[in-house]
Automatic annotation (TrEMBL):
Function: In the presence of manganese, represses expression of mntH and mntS. Up-regulates expression of mntP.
Quaternary assembly: Homodimer.
Protein name: Transcriptional regulator MntR
GO CC entries: cytoplasm
Organism domain of life: Bacteria
Family named by the database record: Belongs to the DtxR/MntR family.
Originating species: Chryseobacterium defluvii
The organism's taxonomic lineage, starting at the top: Bacteria, Pseudomonadati, Bacteroidota, Flavobacteriia, Flavobacteriales
Entry-linked InterPro entries: DtxR_MntR_Metal-Reg (IPR050536), Fe-transptr_FeoA-like (IPR007167), Fe_dep_repressor (IPR001367), Fe_dep_repressor_sf (IPR036421), FeoA_core_dom (IPR038157), HTH_DTXR (IPR022687), Iron_dep_repressor (IPR022689), WH-like_DNA-bd_sf (IPR036388)
Location in or out of the cell: Cytoplasm
Chief location category: cytoplasm
A GO molecular-function descriptor: DNA-binding transcription factor activity
Keyword list, A-Z: Activator, Cytoplasm, DNA-binding, Manganese, Repressor, Transcription, Transcription regulation
Residue intervals of the HTH dtxR-type domain: 1-64
Amino acid sequence: MRTTLTEENYLKALFHLVDNEGKVTINELSKFLNVKMPSVNNMMKKFAEKSWVIYETYKPLIVTEKGKREASLVVRKHRLTEMFLVKTMNFGWENVHEIAEQLEHVHSQIFFDKMDEILDYPKFDPHGEPIPDKDGNIIAQDLQKLSDCHIGETVVFASVTLSDDAFLSYLNERQLLLNTKIKIIKIEDFDKSLTIEIEGKKEVLSRKATEKILVKK
């Protein structure tokens, strides 16, 4: 039986919220989805019947391997769509999230496999996030927040944790794009804003921004 749009939104939330032990709480899901707790409980009971989660009252949910795979496949459709919109249709990376939110609910597997083929099987989406393969496997990344870096370090901009239009436009204005080398020049004691150097030019980034930028050394 096909998953419903609502089920897929829950699966995607599980993907983003699950911790290293495979656990997530009903309260976390409720806040993330802006859905009332009783509704979340009811949906998780259905998920338990499908063996996607292990559900026990008053305990964190445990997302099963089957559940993780289902969640990864929803995320695969979203991230492949974003990449297709950027690489093939020339959308800006700040303009693709909402369109992908709609197209991710298309059920045709062959549609997304063809998209993957046309793109030559990309490993990452336009925001630097890994694209799960057709079996739901995903590449592990060793990244850290720019806000955790130190003065004098040079790092490479690898991904963002937030892909909303306003934040990506903020990065565009500063010509801060993926794979850009970033040198940390100064960290303000007062508000922890960073002065960075990119391609010989200095920029000041707020703490709010540097916490959403992921880098690799």
